[in-house]
Every structure is written in structure tokens, then in C-alpha cells.
Amino acid sequence: MFRFKQKQPLLNRRELLVSFVVAGCIVALRLLGFFQLFEWIALDIFFQLRPLETYPQPITIIAVDEISLRTIGTWPVPDRTIAELLTKLNKSHPHAIGLDIYRDFKVDPGHEQLLAAYQNTPNLVGIEKLSQKQDNHVLPPIGLNRSQVGFNNIVLDSDAKVRRSLLYWHTYKEKHESFALKIAKLYLQSTGIVPLAAQSNPEYLQLGKAVFSRFLPNDGSYVGADNRGYQIISNFPKPSCTTCSRDNWGFRKVSLREVLNDKVPESWIKNRIVLIGSTAPSLQDYVQIPYSSQFVGQAKTIAGVELQAYFISEIISGALYSRPLIKVWSDPIEYLWIWVCAYLGVVTRYQIKKTTISFLIIIFFGSVLAGSTFVIFLDGWWIPIIPGLISLSASAFVVTCQINYVQEELKRSKEFLYQIINTIPDPVFVKNKNYQWIVLNEAYCEFLGYPKEVLLEKSDYEYFSDSQAKAFRFHDDLVFRTQEPCETEEQFTDKNGNTYSIATKRSLHKDAAGNCYLVGVIRDITKRKLIEEDLKREKAELFRSNKELKIREDRLRYLAYHDPLTGLPNRKLFAEQLEESLLWAQSNSLMVGLLFIDLDGFKKVNDTLGHEMGDRLLITVASRLNNCLRGSDTVARLGGDEFTVILRAIPKKEVAAKVAEKILLTITEPILLEGNVARVSASIGISIYPVSSHDTETIIKQADAAMYRAKHMGKNRYEFA
């Protein structure tokens, strides 16, 4: 009992010392930004794990998608189309309309109509991009009142994700409001909510029940972040939406084409916020947010207009329903949190002697900490979970190393050094922590060529070249550091200049005082290494020869069966594929369609733009044909502007007709060739096995004849054999 009481104060001081040292290191690393990226990842995971939210979402997005772009036929969208859209929306009386498309220049036709629509839409908000550089500054929409314009600048973190939003920005002493804030204010006006200075801090904005605390450079996990403007850390909503994506959350979206064709219910527009923006992949207006990260697969980006919807939804739900905004601890509280986690790890490891049990408890505590911070996050608090977990585990690891060191001091190995070493016929050496020889057997001295008395208390650098001595020192140091035995292969040069290949097995031993000794046993493997080198050279030569032969074989086979310009199967491969397809269809009682395609107007492109442009056109047509077909179908180029398509396993000939129609539609789309727009069409002949014939040659001739018939009947059409 007396001994226990004597040791207890020392143990307490040790726990405090270790916990303070570990916590201090973690805090220092955190201030240097080592954990910033990992804390962002943890925050993203918390966002993804949060449940769906049921706050009412008054936002409808009108998406300028790829289908709408093809319907309109041009980009940017003409002013007449925008004016028509605004006129239709006004009839449904939305609270606010956000035009998240830059309109800083005229896009005829219909500019006068657009100006009139601007005048008739006081609840419209347009966008601009603020920048000190003129070449990066995007002006407001032409003709739109300056008070109806908000900036849409975003703040990217170093991992290219958006986690913060801007509310205000100042340029040349002029105050600007963000696009999202202007839209939210318009909507909140109908509920009687107006911007106020917060009572807790007059410099903070308050809307209804929400106070938007201004972001500081070291808030949360950020270290020295740029906090220009009025920024906030965004608490991205996760709104439930039964009509949205497969995840059943997000914002309701309709296409521009659907609105223009009056296919959208009025209830989706009336008294709501309507955002107009591009979602077409070809326009590349996409960003990443915390929800973009995927546990499996590539990151999922969102359109810029969806990002603005998140910002608007956050402001409105905070103002109307007290939805939490992101809050962070002050620096002293974060430091205290890190120390508490470190102290918990130290106490657990010291009190529980068994390593396995103690680390299981540490894992349990870590799980509790992670779960607790997630629950607190749901209430809007961003707690530094990564520094806490690292403090907990690092402190337990440090204590474990201390315990192991004390236990290793009890090992005794001095008898091995004096009694065993000279009984081994192989060369053996023993070094101290200063890498000096302290014990050598006779075999080692004979191998090196010096007497023992000369070598003792000397180091490798005094008898070996720098390269060999550095290699010996590296492996010696590895054993001293890891305290684990290792076996390595090295070069060894004796006194007479003879170089040998050796295998050295090193292990570490300690005496009762805790002094460490490195013991090495050497085997001469020179003959074995020479044989191995010969075998390696022969193997490498064989491998190189086989590889070259395989590359040549693959290249020749490819050239024999593919068109060098388009990469499509050539006439030879087409004939083989068709023969195989007919045999397979015969054995399975299925139909095969053969399409002969000849381009209309290709000669004109060649004559006017040149053969190089003609080649590029053929490559484009080949790509479009591939995109029209299934993976089981085959498209080939026979030569010139003639192509064939094999449609396998079709149930009826109408399927071939649909494919032909799709090909005609695709080929007639304009083709851009270095600033020149080329237009071609196609004449298609179709033969069906076994309807047209059972013979391969006959089917080909019939399809060819049908193609010429289509060409004579006006081109840009298809005909059956």
C-alpha cells in the first residue's frame, strides 16, 4: 500500500505531462494546416450522412439542359426566348425570379422584347461577376435595373469545393449584394421579414430568426483563409424531394423546353422562387460541394444554378424556421477539447495494462467521439473531430512506447555477446549505438583482412568506401530504430580490394542496463548472385523479345482489319462480322439488319474545304454513327464516304427503320470544321435477313441497290430492299 501511494503522484504528473505534450504537438500541427483537408473530408461525410430535411422548399429550377439547347438551336439563348420565358412565368405570379445566366450583351433576335420583359418583371434578379480585373468582370444584364442585380461569385477551398457563401462584397467602396441574398430578401418580404443588424453583434446580418455570423480566417478547420467580403460557412440543406433524383432529395427541376411548351403545372411556379440557369454538361457550369464526394466512384458535381438554390434555401429556412447555421468554437475551447482527448488516451493506456484491451477501449472512445460530434453537427456545430481523434490515438501510442521501453530494459543478452559469438563459423560482428565494432569473431576478421585489435572501436567509414559504409549505416540504423531483425543483401570489399556479395542478418539485443547492441551475421553469396544475374539477363531479353513480337502482331492485325482514318472496321472485318452474324441469327432464329450508308454532299465539302477537312468530317460521322448504335451492333467504313451498319438480333424490321431515322437525324446536324460549318446528309439502303435473302452476297447487293434507290428518290432518306 505504501509503495502504491508513493507512485501515484508521479503517475498523475506523467499523465499530465504526456497529454500536454501530445496536445501541444497536435495544436501546432493544426495551426500549420496539416489537418485542414482531413477535417474538410470529415465535414463532407457528416453532410452526406445527415437525414433528409422536411422544411418547405419554395424553389423551382428551370434548367437549360441539353435537350432545350438542341430545341433552341443556339447558345447563348436568344433574347426573344428569355423574354418569352419571363412573360410566361409572370402569368403564374412567382414571388421571385432569378436569372442565373450572364446577359451582358445582346443576343438577337428579340432584344427589344427582353427589355420590355425586364420592365414588366420587378421581381426579377439578374447576375454579374465582380472582379478587380476587367477581363474577368462580367457586367449586369443590359437594360436591367441596377437594384435588380446580384453577384454570383463563389469561394473555392483549396480542394476545389464550395463550403462558404458570400452575402456582401465591396468594390471601390460600393456595396454589392449576392444573387442568393437578393432572391431570399424578395421572398422574405412577403412574410414581413426585412434585414436587420443583429443584437448580439451589430456588424452581423439578421433575417428573421437567423443571425449570419461573419466568417473569420481560422474558423472551424480553416487556417489563414481568405475572408474578404461578408462570408459565412454554408450549412447546405438536404431537402426532401419526391420528384427529384433517385436519392429523393434536392430541388424540383423542370426544363426550359417544358416551360415554353406550357407543360409545367402552375402550382410549381406560383408564389415560389424560380431560378433559371444552365445544367447542360456542354456548358461546363458545374461545381463541387460537400454532397459531391462519393464513397464509391467519381465525385458528383452540381450546376451553378443548383448551388445558388442551396444558398437561397439556407437563408430562407434559417430566417423562417430557425434552421441552424454553422457555428464554431473559439480557439481556446478547441485547444481544451484537444487536450481532453489526449488526456483520455493517456489515462486509458496507463490504467489498462493489456495492450489489446486498452486499444479496443480507445477505439470505442473514438467511435463515441465521432458519433457525438455528428449529433452536435446536426444542431449546426462544427467540432474539430480529426484533431480530437488524433490526440486520443497519439497519446495512447506514446504511452505504449514508454511502457515497451521500460519492459525492454529488463532483457539480458550480455551472455550471448561473450559466449555464443565465437561458436559461429560465419563472420559475425557486434556494434554499439555509435555504430562502432565492439565484438568480432575470427571469421569476420579473416574475411575483412585485418586483425581484431585494429578493428575494435572503429566504424565502417574507416575501412569501406562511402557507398558501402552508407549502406551498412542505413541498415544498422533501421534495426536500431525499429528494434526488429532484418536480412539484407550488400556489397563487401576486403583489405585486398576483392568485392563480395553478402547477405547480412541483423538483430538487436540489450543488456540489463538497457544498452542496445546490434548483432550481424554474414554469409558469402557471391556465386549465387552471379548465377542470378545471368538468369535475370536471359529472362529480361526473352521478355523484351516476346513483347516486341506481340506489339507487332497486334499492330499488324489491327491495320489489317480497321480503316486507318476513322478506326472503324474495314471491308474485310465487315465481311467476316456479317457472315458470323448471319450464321448466329440462323441458329437462333433471329433477324439481322444491314444498312448501306452513302453521304450526300461529301464531295462538295472535299471540293470547297479540302481533303483534310473532308477527312475530319468522315471521322466526325464515324463517331456519330457509333453513338447511334448498341454495343452489339457494328459500324464499318467500306471506303470513301460509304459506311455499313450490322444490326444484330432485331425482333422486326421496324427496328432497323428507327435506327436509320436516328442516323439520318444525327448526320444532318451541323459539323464545325475549323470555323466552317459543314452540312451533309445520308442515303440509306436496308436489307433484312432472312426477309430479303439468306445469302450474304445477295443481302449486300440488295442493301446497296436500296441505297442507290434512296439517293435517286431525293436523298436524306432510307429505303428497304
General description of the model:
The chain is of the alpha/beta class. The protein has 4 domains: 2-48 and 330-408, no CATH class; 57-321, no CATH class; 414-524, Beta-Lactamase (2-Layer Sandwich), CATH 3.30.450.20; 562-720, Reverse transcriptase/Diguanylate cyclase domain (Alpha-Beta Plaits), CATH 3.30.70. Keywords: Membrane, Transmembrane, Transmembrane helix. This is Diguanylate cyclase. Residues 590-721 form the GGDEF domain. It comes from Dulcicalothrix desertica PCC 7102.
How is this fold's topology laid out?
Blueprint: H1 2-31, H2 36-49, E1 59-64, H3 66-72, H4 79-91, E2 96-100, H5 111-119, E3 124-128, E4 149-151, E5 164-171, E6 174-177, H6 179-189, E7 195-197, E8 205-207, E9 210-212, E10 230-233, E11 252-255, H7 256-260, E12 273-278, E13 286-287, E14 302-303, H8 304-321, E15 327-328, H9 331-351, H10 355-377, E16 381-382, H11 385-408, H12 414-420, E17 428-431, E18 437-440, H13 442-448, H14 452-455, H15 466-482, E19 486-493, E20 499-510, E21 516-524, H16 526-561, H17 571-588, E22 591-600, H18 602-609, H19 611-628, E23 634-639, E24 642-650, H20 653-667, E25 671-673, E26 676-678, E27 681-689, H21 696-712, E28 717-720
Parallel strand pairs: 1-11, 1-12, 2-3, 2-12, 3-4, 15-16, 27-28
Antiparallel strand pairs: 5-6, 5-10, 7-8, 8-9, 13-14, 17-18, 17-21, 19-20, 20-21, 22-24, 22-27, 23-24, 25-26
Domain PAC: 486-537
Organism: Dulcicalothrix desertica PCC 7102
Pfam families: CHASE2, GGDEF, PAS_4
